[in-house]
């Protein structure tokens, strides 16, 4: 395709989508709650910022004990993951606040941890959120040959072992993102043949300045405190590998499990059989809805169906919206995919990866 926005037509909007929006809007109006700009979200952001700063300070100025410093780096990695999932994710969706300036400020969270918010909004908000699990469009489920994440990708011999070795790839993904984003931004690259938008002056600022701040935070200050390059590199690698393991594995549980669909596109017309909202329900899965800690820490990513249907709503509302969506789905005969526990979602992801790795054809549109 020659432009940055793919041309795929969904089925005409149905009563299902209208019913969803009406009942969710009714929930907010009847309870006098705002979908964004919530004090609970600002407080949560302050907690996570404190988590990151506290872990970083402990590593730098805490006891000169290697095991304790490693634990500090691990804690920092958990903080960075929470940083990205709970703060940067909402901000880059525009769901943190109705004020674009506030969203822009908190979107720098992604840039600070090495992910370009400018590129993320194109790759994630458009190619993934609009065209979820569609071949050649959803870049988030493309394994680049290393792994096979959908039946729409070609199988290679080593994929029969992917359910085992994929866990060793997750920690490396932040480095892959950083290098890939840098290359695409500088050389005007593309995702799956879809060129990235031409950056404006403000996009260049957003790409460069937060990286300078991050470099000072993670490199200059530790070096000024007397840490060697090797010590800084090892500590930073530990933190980012922990962050990668958490963030990527959580994404997998939302879209790479047995219960979700990988629909076909009629390439003669570039049409999809389902309307957009129904596609989002079929291609996403929730997990561990009763786990209070995960509901808080994962930034609503364990309510992936709710997030895909209402990406403009702050994630702190997802637990209350889930029963509403489940009720509407039941009324319209649409399967709402939910794994009751974190463990059951991991088990389903394992079985699906193992199935994709076997030399057996799997229909692209999996029911």
Automatic annotation (TrEMBL):
Record domain Fatty acid desaturase: where: 70-338
One of the record's GO molecular function terms: oxidoreductase activity, acting on paired donors, with oxidation of a pair of donors resulting in the reduction of molecular oxygen to two molecules of water
Signal peptide: none
Stored Pfam families: FA_desaturase
Transmembrane annotation, as ranges: 41-61, 68-87, 161-179, 204-224, 230-254
E.C. designation(s): 1.14.19.-
Keyword tRNA-binding carried by entry: no
Keywords recorded for this protein, A-Z: Iron, Membrane, Oxidoreductase, Transmembrane, Transmembrane helix
Known cofactor(s): Fe(2+)
GO CC field: membrane
Keyword presence, Zinc-finger: no
Example GO biological process: lipid biosynthetic process
Family statement: Belongs to the fatty acid desaturase type 2 family.
PANTHER family: DELTA(5) FATTY ACID DESATURASE C-RELATED, FATTY ACID DESATURASE 2
Descriptive protein name: NADPH-dependent stearoyl-CoA 9-desaturase
Organism, scientific name: Acaryochloris thomasi RCC1774
């Amino acid at each position: 395709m020659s432009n940055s926005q793919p041309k795929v037509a969904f089925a005409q909007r149905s009563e299902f989508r209208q019913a969803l929006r009406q009942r969710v809007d009714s929930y907010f109006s009847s309870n006098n709650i705002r979908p964004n700009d919530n004090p609970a979200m600002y407080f949560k952001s302050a907690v996570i910022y404190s988590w990151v700063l506290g872990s970083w300070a402990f590593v730098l100025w805490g006891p000169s004990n290697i095991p304790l410093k490693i634990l500090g780096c691990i804690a920092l990695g958990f903080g960075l993951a929470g940083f990205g999932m709970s703060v940067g994710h909402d901000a880059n969706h525009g769901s943190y606040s109705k004020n674009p300036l506030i969203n822009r400020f908190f979107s720098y969270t992604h840039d600070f941890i090495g992910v370009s918010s400018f590129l993320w909004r194109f790759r994630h908000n458009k190619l993934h959120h609009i065209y979820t699990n569609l071949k050649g469009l959803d870049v988030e489920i493309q394994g680049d040959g290393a792994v096979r994440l959908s039946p729409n990708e070609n199988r290679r011999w080593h994929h029969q072992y992917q359910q085992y070795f994929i866990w060793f790839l997750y920690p490396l993904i932040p480095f892959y993102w950083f290098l890939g984003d840098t290359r695409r931004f500088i050389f005007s690259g593309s995702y799956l043949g879809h060129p990235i938008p031409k950056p404006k002056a403000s996009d260049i600022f957003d790409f460069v300045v937060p990286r300078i701040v991050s470099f000072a935070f993670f490199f200059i200050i530790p070096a000024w405190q007397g840490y060697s390059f090797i010590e800084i590199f090892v500590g930073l690698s530990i933190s980012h590998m922990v962050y990668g393991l958490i963030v990527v594995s959580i994404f997998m549980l939302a879209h790479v499990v047995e219960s979700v669909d990988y629909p076909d596109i009629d390439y003669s017309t570039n049409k999809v059989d389902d309307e957009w909202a129904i596609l989002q329900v079929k291609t996403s899965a929730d997990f561990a809805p009763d786990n209070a800690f995960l509901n808080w820490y994962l930034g609503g990513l364990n309510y992936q169906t709710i997030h895909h249907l209402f990406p403009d709503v702050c994630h702190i509302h997802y637990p209350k919206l889930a029963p509403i969506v489940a009720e509407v789905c039941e009324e319209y005969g649409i399967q709402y995919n939910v794994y009751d526990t974190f463990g059951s979602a991991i088990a389903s992801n394992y079985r699906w990866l193992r199935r994709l790795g076997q030399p057996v054809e799997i229909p692209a549109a999996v029911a």
